[in-house]
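Anyone opening a protein record will find just a pair of labelled lines. The record below illustrates this layout.
***
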Amino acid sequence: MNTIVKDWHIVSVFDGEELIGKVLWGICVDDMTYRFATDDYISTSKIVKISPHNQLIKTASGSLYQVIGEGQSYL
């Protein structure tokens, strides 16, 4: 596992009416890659895969995030 995130949101990014992609935004609980400190805000690159059954999110940069708790989506 790379990074564990709490208080998370999936945010849709638009260019006018066109959906460009979605990113994960949240607060770092633990980061095994040492990019983020505990309680840092995290905004990821574009999400390429969401696995809801195990709460994992993979991004275009290849990072893997485990989200804990209930998240929210924003259009």
Q: What stands out?
A: The chain has a mean pLDDT of 94.
